[in-house]
Amino acid sequence: MDYKLPYKVSGNNVYIYGYSVECDLLILKQDSKAIFEAPEIYRAEDVITIIESKATGIFIDKKKPKNPFLNELCMVKQLNDKGVGVKFAYISLAEQISGRSSRLLDEANRYINEYSNEKNQNKGVYCFSKTYPEDEYPLYEGNPYSFDEYIKYLCDDFS
Questions:
Q1: Are strands 47-56 and 25-29 parallel, antiparallel or unpaired?
Q2: Backbone angles phi, psi at 15, to 5 degrees
Q3: How far are the Cα atoms of 8, 18, 97, 141 from residue 119, in angstroms, in the given order?
Q4: What is the pLDDT of residues 25-81, one digit of tens each?
Q5: Is 90:137 a contact under the CB 8 Å cutoff?
Q6: What is the 3-state secondary structure (H, E, C) of the chain?
């Protein structure tokens, strides 16, 4: 879909120059060009948002909770500390929502907000669709905004 925004999206599994963490996708300034092609590597100042993308699933070990995005978020913090101003998002195509997965989504947002997206405490995670197992679980009331609004949020700068 053409959102008529002055941005572009990288290929998948790319890097930011000077960092060894692989990124699933990057939202970049429109005139950005990779400084290396295989794998794609971009300059930090061209990056607007880092996106971790999965078909399904937020994987947090219940017995030993650990931030599943720790490497990416440490990189985001380093970039932001240098004044680059990068956001982070986890986008899932679908989540099977149960009481446990609803808590995992909330926990994932909390982890992301420790490092990034401080102005919008609940916009770290977006699920395109949710599947509901049984009626015994409460419905997860996530994504109170449209995908269009979410993309615009991810493209906004920090000012």
A1: antiparallel
A2: -130, 160
A3: 23, 27, 26, 20
A4: 999 998 999 999 989 999 999 999 999 888 776 666 666 667 778 888 889 889 988
A5: no
A6: CCCCCCEEECCCCEEECCCCCCECEEEEECCCCCCEECCEEECHHHEEEEEEEEEECCCCCCCCCCCCCHHHHHHHHHHHHCCCCCEEEEEEEEEECCHHHHHHHHHHHHHHHHHCCCCCCCCCEEEEEEECCCCCCCCCCCCCCCHHHHHHHHHCCCC
